[in-house]
Specification:
42% helix, mainly alpha, 64 residues, 2 helices
């Protein structure tokens, strides 16, 4: 009989997301200025995109 409570207690995807978020928080807190899109992309491990092409994270509007 399958035990529905026998589930892994570690979620690898969630841990990876938390690590990326933590890296962004640390970098932002240590920076004197806003992080550039290129810096954010680098921290997230995104590949560089050809100049003028789409890529990276869409810019989010600033909150007032």
């Amino acid at each position: 009989m399958d035990d529905k409570l026998n589930v892994p207690l570690e979620d690898a995807e969630l841990l990876a997301e938390v690590e990326l978020t933590t890296n962004l928080i640390i970098a932002a807190s240590e920076s004197d200025a806003e992080l550039t899109q290129a810096q954010v992309d680098m921290l997230l491990g995104l590949e560089q995109v050809a100049e003028g092409g789409p890529g990276g994270i869409p810019a989010q509007p600033r909150r007032p």
